[in-house]
């Protein structure tokens, strides 16, 4: 069991997405990418709230929704564990590529809409995206 520090999370306060949803999406993406493995221990609600200066109820809400989905499970005296092998969860029913695409799609849709609203051509938006991908290697 690997224990993760609160620094694995980040939030965008200016985003239109609620903070708890940002945390949920990050956990989903990290599990899809293999950064979180079955049985890994997430930081406590209190640790995440302090590190990100959030209300603990925000973190708790994200953890609880993911527990209902089956991605996390509560283990008394230990904390929230990643539960990728649960059959009810998306990880078992989809292959990794389609799951990653499904998680990335909303972000790309928002970026595409913003590019269109600014009058940016498709080719320029794609060139910028490729540049950003190259910078983040």
Describe this structure in words.
This protein is mainly alpha-helical and 137 residues long. The chain has 2 domains: 93 residues, Arc Repressor Mutant, subunit A, CATH 1.10.10; 44 residues, no CATH class. The chain contains 6 helices and 2 strands. A two-stranded antiparallel ribbon has the order 1-2. α1 packs across α5. It is globular, with a radius of gyration of 17 Å.
Helix and strand arrangement:
Elements: H1 19-32, H2 45-52, H3 56-69, E1 72-75, E2 79-82, H4 90-93, H5 96-117, H6 122-135
Antiparallel strand pairs: 1-2
Helix pairs in contact: 1-3, 1-5, 2-3
- The portion of residues forming beta strands comes to 5-15%
Helix/strand-derived category reads: mainly alpha
Shape: globular
The total count of strands amounts to 2
- CATH-assigned homologous superfamily of the largest domain: Winged helix-like DNA-binding domain superfamily/Winged helix DNA-binding domain
In spatial order, strands of the major sheet run: 1-2
Second rung of CATH, namely the architecture of the largest domain: Orthogonal Bundle
The N- and C-terminal alpha carbons lie at a distance of: 28 Å
What percentage of residues falls in helices of 4 or more residues? 55-70%
Radius of gyration: 17 Å
Q: How is the main sheet built?
A: 2 strands, antiparallel
SSE topology string: HHHEEHHH
How many helices does DSSP assign? 6
- Low-pLDDT parts are 86-93
The averaged pLDDT comes out at 86
Identify the CATH class of the largest domain.
Mainly Alpha
Number of domains: 2
**What is the CATH third-level topology name of the largest domain?**
Arc Repressor Mutant, subunit A
